[in-house]
Design a protein that fits this description.
heterodimer, A: alpha/beta, Aspartate Aminotransferase, domain 2, Aspartate Aminotransferase, domain 1, 7-stranded mixed β-sheet, 12 helices, about 40% helix
Amino acid sequence: MDMDVKDEFDKYCVDVYGNPGSFHTEGLKAKQAVANARERIAKVLNCKSSEIVFTSGGTESVNLAIKGLVYASNGKRKQIITTKIEHHAVLHTCEYLEKKGFDVIYLNIDENGVGDIDQLKKVISENTLLVSIMYANNEIGTIQNISEIGRICKEHNVKFHTDACQATGYLDLDVDKLNVDLMTINGSKVYGPKGVGLLYIKSGTVIEPLMHGGGQENNKRSGTENVPGIMAFAKAVEISEAKKEKEVVRLTKLRDKLTNGILESIPKSKLNGHPSTRLPNNVNISFLDVEGEAILLYLDSKGVYASSGSACTSKTLDPSHVVVAMGVPYEYAHGSIRFTLGRETTEEDIDYVLEILPEIVSNLRKISPFNVELTVKK
Amino acid sequence: MTQLEVIGSENKDWFYTEKVKDHFFHPRNIFKTEQEVKEFNADGVGLVGSPACGDGMKMFIKVEDDKIKAIRWQTYGCGTAIASTSAYSVMLLEDGGLSIENALKIKPKDIADYLGGVPARKFHCSVLADKALREAVNDYFKKSGQEDRIVEGSAKIIDKILKITDHDIEHAVLEGAYDFEAVQRKTKVGIHDKACIPEVERLIVVYKEKYFGD
């Protein structure tokens, strides 16, 4: 968490401790603070402050967007369109709705992780209630053409939700340009606190609340406001926006240096996700003949913390649904590693990884019984 | 939650024990050079798994007087898979090398115990090692004219409609499905072929006994 964000959090834990729902002076102070935070975030999203609903994070926002819309609908439109590579918050919510009789279409993605817009155009109809497609993917970093998807939805009078959790701080969040009706953002992805997020709900979009109670958040999400979380979240979003332009340039350079360095120095490696239309902080690479988790353990022992799309790090023992959906062969999918760069990442860090990684992979290959020859596009 | 259980240890942490880490970072009985691979001259070689399924193990054995005298292995897999094979190779060479009969008696649970426990959902990673040894021993029997000693682990179809084998059920038990409902969730066994349910229940008991000793 950013230190300024932490200070803001502390201030609203200790100094301004009132309940925004109370009539007294302390309550009023908290109420005004939250209103102010809402306005500041609205500026970043280029929306009205009344269109922002604070929640407990990305998962709740996604649930509120999808189920809220379903519960408020008259039941005539029974189809939801999404992609195969969404976060589990979206996928599992959709699976739940399938059990309740909804028809969910999971759009294909191409070998770079880009959603199939032609397929969307073919399947969208007057039966479609909602399209939910993530802005940028958390595992492979690929960015979707949200404004174009939004335009198609508008044409068909279909509501459009995007999960923008990964995009915050790196991509344009102007809801007008993006053509979205609903947009999810969370706090912990922008160096803010965990346990807070928001859902942008365009005015005129009717959703049924999931939380019933005191009618907070414009009757869309009852429950006493998480004042310290909201204040710190607003601060974090503002800081991210201010740093965005420079960070995008700096991280893109580091990202490409790391990617190219690995692909050049390690044979039988391949980049997962789009080579350029991807988040500046995401590098996802697969290696043949070695398993991702084994690489992670070596990296970890040398102070480098990465993650893996390998089966062995998942609960289901299946390789990453995202990497597999791109059509990456299983032989590669099991050996995928993701590096996430951030504000603290320096060029020295990149050089260090480039120095240690070839030997790690080579050592693991020495004890591997396989020597697979697979030609795939780098 | 079974996923957080650690088999063979009181340690409920997900993380690896020091012994697992030791064998992972310092694997024993591996080929150190290309030269060694060529000159080892194994009496039996066994390979199980594939790169596509995310696990693979190859075992090379040298046999003398029906005892395992030397062993080399190669493993493609996660930390547990690598550490388990390394530990297993050490266990097989104890007291100057176990007899083939005793070597084949080592259960995956014994390997997990030796390592001070592995996370429950990683347990399946340690079961390839004994299957690879079984293959290597069979290969040795074949090469040395002892075909009569070969024991094939061929699969038997249990669910006649979905063609689910005893191996599938074994695999499900290893992945933490300890009762019929859990095994059915993983394999869909017995949904159509209801007649096989008693046999499935019997097999679950057999495999629990085989791997977990209870």
